[in-house]
Amino acid sequence: MSRLSFTEALDQALELLDQGHPLEYCVRQFPEYSDELRPLLQVSADLYSLATVSLASLETPSREPDWEAILSRTRQEPERRFKPFAVALRELFESLRYHPVQRFAALGAAMVILGFVMWHGTDHSSADSVLYPIKRGVEQVEFIAAQTEEDRLSLQIQFAHRRLAEVRSLAYHQERVEPPVIHALLQEAHAAIVQVKQDGVSQPEAYPQINDLWAETNASLEQLKQLAAAAPAEDAATLESAVSMMTMLRADVAAVAVAIPASPTPVDAVIAQVSIAPTPITPTPTRAAAGTTAVGPTPAAADLPAGGDDDPDDVSNAGATVGRLAPSASATPTQDAPTASPAPAPMTLVGNPTAPAPAPATSAPAPTTENPTIVPTEAGTEEPTISVTIEPTAVATELPSAEPVVEATPEPTVAEPVAETPEPTRAPKPAKPVPAKPMPEPVTATPEPTAESTETPTATLPSPTGEPAETPTASLPSPTGEPAETPTASPTALPSEPTAGSPTEMPTETAPVITPEPTLASAPDTATAAPIEAPTLVPTEAPTVDAPQPDEIPVPTIGVIRTPVTPASPAPDPSVATETPTVTVIPTPDPMPEPIESVPQADEETDSPSEQPTPTPVANRDSQVSPAAQLHTDQQLRQDAPAAFAPDVESDGHRLLVQGGVPRSGQEQAPAAVNMDGKRTSAEAAPRQERLQRVNGKT
Amino acid sequence: MPGSIDLPSVIARAREGNPQAIRELYDVYSDPVRRYCYVRLADSEAAQDCVQEVFLCIWKGVKNFEYRGDLSFTAWLYTIANNVLVSYVRKRKRVQQVPLTPELNLTDPKSNDSARSICERLALRQAISQLTSEQQQVITLKFYVGLTNLEIAEILGRTEGAVKALQHRAINRLQQILSHERASMFADFSFGEIA
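The joint structure predicted for all components is written out below.
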């Protein structure tokens, strides 16, 4: 007989006792526990005795209740078809009572499900949801748990991303926008960006993320602007303030991007964007596109809401898309370059023959050296504002890559555009109609300009008034949207080119022959007449032409500066005039005021893409000009280059200039200018193919 | 105890709304339930009211009762009885403790109890009140109602082994309390003699 536990022995002894056996008998049945069992059995016997005595007085009721009467007054509860959840759950647990393994498994599964639901709900909670504090708490834990500086920086960038996404989501989905919430989010995003600003530059791993952040910022800004424009009156103020805060954030991010040392990563594109950021000023779509392109595709991509994504929730996607675009964008220019090649303006300006066909070479390195020329181009594009901006050496580095490409391809095609271009220019200077060989001349001219332009950018910049710079700008744009613009712009560009690219002018002069050419047909008459009549006006027009471009032209500056744009007095500036003539006719130094008036007309008609209003910039664009010098007030700019302030530009009234200049790693400063309001004109968004077709059609 | 009736058929008739089925159930189960209630309430009339209320609850909810054997019905019956008792006590705002009242007869009319026996019963009753509610439940169902360990386990929602352990601890605790009482009693008596 196996040894019983004391509990079992006691239970069996109680059974015996209940059956009426004497206590000692029960004890003897379990001798091993006799000593311990006896007192307990004694108590048990007393309990039985007590129960018997106590219940003895409990008498059975004399009569039973009248159940039929009682039950007739009581209704039975209806049968439930489904068990209550609590009952079912209890039964489930009861069924698992004797299966500890299954019980723990069920408990674990429940915990996992609950955890997933909590995590999912928390991760996607908006700033006004109940779970949002949990989300922030989790972020704090993540940040604290981060072991390396790289991880922390990455988290900071992620947090900034999230805050921006939350702002967009709130503004997009909320019926009523809560200012405190949005402002708090933006402040937190700003805090994160400031942290990134402090640590990001030193960690190359973070560059791609910063690039994405830049794109995200642009996308958020654009969307907020759209929402603010469409928001009801009661929300407009809130969204407007959010837009202003977002603008400041954008400047911060730009500063971060600019501060990053040169690298082949997309960050370069970001820097290019920053420095070249288009100015919202003028609405010259065509030109704007060109200018933008020149600057760098990345910005364009960034500015545009991720892939045309309307849903702000898709921030991640948007950011991702933008991020991807950035690099590709940079590449795009290169590719476009060939396409854009048709654009005459760029071609002429570039004169890259010298520069090998680096076009495809998205990599900035090689072209960078040469590109400096490009920088001026941008400046030229920006003309009014640009004059100041252009200088950034860093910018130059980036630009080069784009230009080279353009030049190589374009030339052949460009020939035509060039020819056209001359027309407008010619128009003003019909007097020089000598050239009867438009094509040849253009070709010849192109090469020359190329060489010249190449030089011009670097060395010539100062003297040529910077027009060359503009010219390059035109070429840059070409990659992006030049095709379309090219035809129209070409004329414009030509005029401008002549001005800026005095060197180029040589060909231009030849172009005179072109003047009569068909492309400009519409304008030619007017142009022709104008030039003859008012040669002096030339300068004025040139600026005007440039003016349109400025819109897209990025304005490099440090800090936010409001630069009231005053309409450039049509009055011909001596310098401008000198330049203008140069452009149109020939030499760099020669200013031909006369053609100016006619030129403007031609530009308008032709919608010259390159329109290098640069005259002004040119004047300021001494290659040696320091970044600080770029910070000119409107008056200064007017004094320096009145022509730069074309009426169109002036109409904007003010421009916001954001200073993004930060010394590059170990080299010259790269005063990166950021145009706070940088917008893309519709022209930019227009497919290049269409523009090309248009151009081809015209040609 | 319940072996005298065909429980499934009775329950089926009760579901159909036949009052006779409840009468049959009352005849079989009223006594143990009454004892159970009486021990807890120490009031025969209150116990009878509670018994009547228990069977009324069975009538109301029999349609939702899932018969899975006699044990399941016993467990359901005493669960209802316990709920009724708790509700009854709450209404009367009485402490769920066995009071010492004249109704609690500590003498056996069929035998000649000595004073010591009465004192010991009184001490035992007081000792029971010092047990935990679960231990009291086991003692009540085991010694007053006469249920088996298996039935008690079903009622309490515990295993049979757990009920045995509870029973062991409850008896052991009673023995300790009574021993302490006796020791103190003897001590007082000794002091009195000395004094």
